[in-house]
Amino acid sequence: MTEQGSTLTNLRYFVPFSSGWEFVWFDFLALLLIACFFDFKKPFRLRNLDLLMLCVWVPLGDYEKGTLRWTAVVGYWPLFYFLPRLLWQPSRRHEDPCVIHAGSTALATATLAALFYGALLTLICPLPYERYYGMHTLGLSASAIGGSQGAAAILKGQIPYGNLPKGWDCYGPAYYYCFAPFVALLSDLPGVGPQYHLPARALTILANFVAASALRALGQRLAGVQFGWALACFWSAIPYTLISCYWSQAGHLLVGALLAVAGLGLSCSTVRGGLALAWASAAAFFPVLLIPVWAARLAKRERVRFVALVVAAGMLLTLPMLCQSQGIWRLLDATLVFRQTRNVGPWSPWTHFPWTRPAMQFFQWMTLPVVAYCAWRARGRGYVSTLALAGAVVIYTQLYSLHAPGRYQLWMLPFLLPVLLLGSNRAAFEEQVVRAAGLPYPRRPGEAETPGTDVRAVAGTSPEEGDT
Predict the structure, then answer these.
(1) pTM score, two decimals?
(2) How far apart are CA 277 and CA 274, in angstroms?
(3) How far apart are alpha carbons 443 and 449 in whole angstroms?
(4) Which residue of 375, 394, 398, 421 pairs with 405 in a disulfide if CB–CB is 3.0 to 4.6 A?
């Protein structure tokens, strides 16, 4: 081990690859987050259980070093809690917002400290561990290295599909577009070897900052400055994010950031939100399932425009990949076909308990009915209720995933955090819309809005005129 690596070994408690008692620092971070939002006056509130379930994955430490037979099972427990929780959320007439035991300044300071901590972890990987046994010896995740190599292929006029190792080209075209500027600018810097993969590390750092910024802006729009910094602090400080930063898990962070940006865009404009959702869909495919949920809450004419915009933008992003020889077949074989036919990994309970395979197939078959149900529930709902239903769709897709859902919490957090921490299903957002229109807010504090009230009607605008 190098002298630098030996020095960093003394700080192994602050590096996510630790296990056992060495992982206690990250458990402590999770406890700090719980303490910051826990309602000690009402310890049996459902909100407190939400916080505990958000941190269930944290004590598992690093899944590579745990007993996979059990960590794979425990990683699925929160899904069976959050799915009915989000489906139930739109039906709740009133729920007090979370208690925040810190001011905006303290939350902002903690957020910035966590973001820079994550950036430092990204830059030092794989030290103090010179080898990431279990995947490869390059230190970074396959999603990051594959993204860089796919972007390099695009810059050479090729397509990544069929030109990368199997499994490294299983993302959509927009995923590799995100890497392209970093590969073009940072690949040939003097003094930086190609094995360091600086473009992937730079994109990881940027994606983390973008996701935190999007959640901060969304929280501020929904419930004020303090709540905005609370969302950003939770995202940036929770160990899921820090672990993904250390390994440059672009498949987690980048997709999570795209979903956070899409959520922010959909809170203020169907055009901006539709374009962001199209980019996320062209990067990871599964966000396509969210299109009918978000469209269902719109007026009929606006719904058609929204769907047309998302589909057209997604096709435009995918079109360059289809212009190559057999491009469409190479794209489908490397992405959808590969995901359906690859061997089940050791991080899924479907591996350790083969008798559960029929349940996995049942969950797969029920995907479209679940999406249709969530879209039906979203009709005429407010933004937060629709966000909860969209989050339920994302969580449902993880029930039959061939990877450990505990590794993909960042896909769920852009939906879970605003919904579970906000409180009343539409109260804060509707109040914001009414006051933005210059009208007096009619509800008394703590009084829920009547279910089914259209936000734009309250604000004095027709569904065709107002934003979503």
Answers:
(1) 0.83
(2) 5
(3) 7
(4) 398
pLDDT of residue 308: 93
Q: Are 251 and 141 in contact (CB under 8 A)?
A: yes
Q: Which residue has the tokens 């107002």?
A: 466
SS3 132: strand
**Which residue pairs from 363-370 have beta carbons closer than 8 angstroms and sit at least 24 positions apart in sequence?**
363/396, 363/399, 363/400, 364/400, 367/289, 367/396, 367/397, 370/396
- pLDDT tens-digit profile of 41-60? 888 888 888 888 888 777 65
CB within 8 A of 271, min separation 6: which ones? 309
pLDDT in tens, 275-301: 999 999 988 888 999 999 999 888 888
AA identity, residue 438: G
% of the chain surpassing 90 pLDDT: 25
- Cβ(260)–Cβ(214) under 8 Å? yes
How many residues in the chain? 468
User: What does the pLDDT look like over 109-147, one tens digit per residue?
Assistant: 999 999 999 999 888 877 766 554 434 445 678 888 888
- Would you give the DSSP letter of residue 294? H
What would the pLDDT profile of 376-417 be if each residue is shown by its tens digit?
A: 998 878 888 899 999 999 999 888 876 665 567 888 899 999
Per DSSP, 136 falls in state B
Q: H-helix or E-strand containing 310?
A: helix 300-322
Query: First-to-last CA distance in the chain?
Result: 56
Q: CA neighbours within 13 Å on the CB side: how many for 50? A: 25
User: Cβ contacts of residue 67 below 8 Å, gap of 6+?
Assistant: none
How far apart CA 456 and CA 464 sit, in angstroms, is: 9
User: How far is Cα 122 from Cα 204, in angstroms, rounded to an integer?
Assistant: 7
Amino acid at 354: P
- Give the phi and the psi of residue 93 in degrees, each rounded to 5: -75, -35
Asked if 230 contacts 241 with a C-beta cutoff of 8 angstroms, the reply is: no
Q: Could you tell me the CA-to-CA distances from 202 to 15, 124, 455 in Å, in that order? A: 19, 12, 40
